[in-house]
Design a protein that fits this description.
elongated; alpha+beta; 188 residues; two-stranded antiparallel ribbon
Length: 188
């Protein structure tokens, strides 16, 4: 049974967040490489939504509701839209409003990522695995950070894809609920 507009917007928001979490955990081909975005699970756990009543420019309630997709992680927008590099840009992040200004990431950012994801270093000459010494990890961290800052970060589009998946399934229910609420308002 179809509820009020607010109820249907809440159902739609919950569905979008659920699909976004699935999208983060799935292996996807992004800019020609297979990637899994959900490394530690912190980003997917931080996803949420808010349904708020629209307001006029004077702050009074207006008809309709807004759906705001949220995350408590500071880097969520960068992962969604990607980041342009300081020298070149990945194809998926060409329309991103974000861009790296420096030639490297801040110290410790990549090192923290390397601790959460078991990175095995290779010897450039032989191609065999090398020992993970602190100096080697530091050097690899610097080189990875420089590559990310100069080439950019691919857009993951986990929310955008989730919305595109949810609209055919539940978009009609939201539209019907809006129409029914409008008819109720018109009759009274």
């Amino acid at each position: 049974m179809i509820g009020s507009t607010k109820q249907e917007m809440n159902r739609f928001g919950a569905r979008v967040v659920k699909l976004a979490r699935i999208n983060l955990g799935a292996r996807q081909k992004i800019d020609g490489k297979m990637r899994v975005t959900n490394n530690t699970g912190a980003l997917s756990k931080s996803l949420g939504y808010e349904v708020t009543q629209k307001r006029t420019s004077k702050g009074q309630f207006a008809s309709g509701f807004d759906l705001k997709l949220t995350s408590t992680m500071s880097y969520a927008s960068f992962m969604e839209q990607g980041v342009k590099g300081s020298e070149s840009t990945k194809p998926s992040s060409r329309k991103s409003p974000f861009q790296f200004k420096s030639k490297n990431l801040p110290k410790g950012v990549v090192a923290g990522w390397m601790k959460s994801k078991p990175v095995r270093l290779r010897d450039l000459g032989t191609g065999s695995f090398a020992k993970n010494t602190e100096q080697a990890k530091k050097q690899a961290s610097f080189l990875i950070g420089r590559a990310i800052a100069t080439k950019g970060l691919s857009a993951r589009n986990y929310f955008k894809d989730a919305i595109e998946q949810a609209v055919p399934q539940q978009g009609g229910d939201v539209a019907v609920a809006m129409a029914l609420d409008y008819i109720k308002k018109f009759k009274s």
